[in-house]
Design a protein that fits this description.
Lysozyme, two-stranded antiparallel ribbon, 9 strands, mainly alpha, 4 domains, elongated, three-stranded antiparallel β-sheet, 21 helices, single chain, 462 residues, Membrane-bound Lytic Murein Transglycosylase D, Chain A
């Protein structure tokens, strides 16, 4: 009897538990997937995850940082760390995507002027690392110079060119200005405050504070904007040195294209220069942000342009006719007269003249382009990529030697064959492209007295 009663009780309990197990397995996946008590709970690395932190956590990290400029955590700085890591993470992500464009150059400039490298974080608060940004009062560039202050440091502007948007010129000017403010006040935090509100307002704050000489000593007597300015710089200094702790992982940072400066000594259009050299206009704009409307005027003819390094040898070799052609109207090739080479032919040329690169873990197009002295746009074009997405093990064609244009060959009704000269061509290159054709034959067929040719020029080749 007792055994029968025990079995009855067990069956009743199992029957009662069945609906609960169904609920957990079907309707509440989170409960079903919950780890056992003795299992290790791994941290959440989802890109939207925002880690918790306390004042003590931040203070411990700040104290372990190696930095030249004085930095001690307080409630004001902590509030901006919260703002940029929690409430406005998008601003921080934007900065991370741009910092590789400018931070290496900032470090070189600060070291040259014997200044703390941490000063570079000021530019993040000034401009968000946008060299062409303009404030509501007319300040321009990475370091937000007003016109008068810019002229004091040799940066002029007109309707076509504004030197305040030149990253190198403005960074050098900012370093000189901040160094003079540091000599004036003897403190880098106070120098940054003076950079924001002017030395006159800082002197007034010092007097009103009873002669105190530190930023936090004169804090209550500074303009409201300046009271937030320096703590924001220090918040960014902390954040960019502790990205992983706040789950910041730059997905597609932008890297600077390696370049050299070339002086053409004439007015020119970036569109025309791009056409003659097969450069990307967007790359020229990015490398030369001081040029407003893609036109270098006569008044700035001596300005040196930054040119992607992969094109520098070709431009230097052909500088004479390029200078002559830059004043001419754009060359237009009619589609009906152009015979385009096949994709197979172009692929073969890439294999013969270019190189390949196998994508490794951690690679992005920007770093690969920088390593090979080419641009992201070129790599995407050579590999028919519609986005910046690449995968480990993928083989990319890298071909800095090709011009990217296809040859144009036309045969007239009389049987005469002509060739349209492409950027990068020489008589020797053309002769190599056509078996049995020598340089002397090309010159004789076209009545040429020299080896000088220009893109767009039509040559008789048979």
């Amino acid at each position: 009897m007792k055994k029968l009663l025990f079995r009855t009780i067990i069956l009743a309990l199992i029957t009662c538990l069945i609906p609960l197990s169904k609920v957990f397995s079907q309707d509440d996946e989170s409960v079903a997937a919950a780890p056992l008590l003795d299992e290790e709970i791994l941290p959440n690395y989802h890109y939207e995850y925002i880690p918790d932190f306390t004042y003590e956590d931040i203070n411990r990290r700040v104290k372990s940082m190696d930095h030249e400029m004085y930095f001690e955590l307080n409630d004001r700085i902590f509030s901006f760390i919260q703002y940029f890591t929690v409430r406005n993470r998008d601003y921080t992500k934007m900065v991370l995507a741009r910092k590789e464009l400018f931070f290496p150059m900032f470090d070189v400039t600060m070291a040259k002027h014997d200044m703390p490298l941490e000063i570079k974080y000021l530019s993040i608060i000034e401009s968000g690392l946008d060299p062409q940004i303009r404030s509501r009062v007319g300040a321009m560039g990475l370091w937000q110079f007003m016109p008068a202050t810019g002229r004091m440091y040799g940066m002029n502007s007109n309707s076509e060119v504004d030197d305040r948007m030149d990253p190198e010129l403005s960074t050098d000017a900012a370093a000189k200005y901040l160094k003079s403010l540091h000599r004036m006040f003897g403190d880098w935090e106070v120098a940054m405050a003076a950079y924001n509100c002017g030395p006159g307002n800082v002197r007034k704050a010092i007097r009103r504070s009873g002669g105190k000489k530190t930023f936090w000593g004169i804090y209550n007597y500074l303009p409201r904007e300046t009271r937030s300015y320096v703590p924001q710089v220090q918040a960014m200094l902390y954040i960019l040195n502790h990205l992983e702790e706040h789950n910041f992982h730059p997905e597609d940072p932008t890297y600077v294209v390696e370049y050299e400066k070339i002086r053409f000594d004439r007015a020119l259009s970036l569109d025309k220069l791009a056409e003659l050299t097969n450069l990307c206009v967007a790359d020229l704009k990015t490398l030369n942000p001081a040029i407003k409307n893609k036109t270098l005027p006569e008044s700035n003819r001596s300005m040196a342009l930054r040119i992607p390094k992969s094109k520098v040898p070709y431009i230097k070799q052909n500088l004479a006719w390029l200078n002559d052609s830059l004043n001419n109207a754009p060359t237009v090739l009619l589609a009906s007269t152009v015979k385009v080479r096949s994709v197979e032919t172009l692929t073969q040329e890439i294999k013969q003249n270019g190189t390949t690169y196998r994508v490794r873990s951690g690679d992005v197009l920007g770093s690969i382009a920088q390593r090979h002295g080419v641009t992201v746009t070129q790599i995407k074009s050579w590999n028919n990529l519609s986005s910046n997405l690449i995968r480990v093990g993928q083989t990319l064609n890298i071909n800095s030697g090709m011009s990217g244009n296809v040859a144009s060959i036309q045969t007239s009704s009389s049987g005469q064959t002509t060739y349209t000269v492409q950027p990068g061509d020489s008589l020797w290159i053309i002769s190599r492209k056509h078996e049995g054709l020598s340089v002397e034959q090309i010159k004789r067929l076209n009545n040429l007295n020299s080896n000088t040719i220009k893109p767009g020029q039509k040559l008789i080749i048979g």
